[in-house]
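re: ur question from earlier - yeah i can do the single chain one, its not a big deal. heres the input i used so u can compare w yours
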Amino acid sequence: MLNFKLDTFLALCELRNYTKTAEQLHMTQPAVTQHIQYLEKYYNAKLFYYDERKRLHLTDYGKLLRAYAQTVKADSEILRSRLASPAEYVDEYKIGSLTGTGEILVPKAAARYLEQYPNKKISIYLGESDDLLIQLKNGRVYACIIDTYCSPEEYSVHELFESETICVCAPEHPLAGKTVDFEELNQYRLIFMSENSKSLYNLRTLLHRYNQDINKFSSYIEVGTINTIHNMVKENAGISFVYQFVVQKNLDRGSLKQIHIKNYFVNTHINFVWMKNSFFERENQEFLKVTREYLTYYLKSKP
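and the output i got, formated as tokens:
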């Protein structure tokens, strides 16, 4: 069956090793080789090649097939879920989002979407970019709102907005509202998402860009959720680096204050993403349109 061979191909794309692919799929290595050879013959194209260090790479044709196969797999899972669901759940739209965006932007956009499409249902899944992309590839969500790069060969990518990453503290913090050198932050406690999270990886990358590191701070606290970070900062337990749009209401109310850092600026693109050439493109375009309409309204209404 062609789809089964495409599953083998996608596993090899991820692992780049025939033996590991065979182990993961509980197959023999010759069977994996046969599946790839079948696909190369079927499509009349070389899909992989080895470099001088014996590392396995995708050819341009292989990259094209990977994009196709990922979309087919994702769409197939969405369709399977739809057909297996009761009739009243057929029009359910599933969107994945970064936690901060999902708590602030997506509910507003979803409400507007339901006003325009009252017979639809919506499920919102929150997480980090890497996990959301896995859900997207597996067909658990139609699209996702994330802050990481996605190859245009594999995904349909639409920028929603840019957000600055800022340093925040409680109103009574000694540095609240002040402009300081980065090194002056080191004497305070840093609050961030727990180990092995994408947010922590992004924070480390940000700090290293300015010759800083988590271990340079006097101490730190690892927490599990964005809301916990915000609440601990409000309680003056430490400082944190966050997307500005996520904490803008707190800044406007005065429950959080920004610490301005000299010669510092970090901007991130927030994108709306789905599998390239997805069968469900119309539904994604509908939700994207409503989300952009809300963002236009939100930005115009800001002072």
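The longest strand covers residues 155-169. not sure if urs matches, ping me
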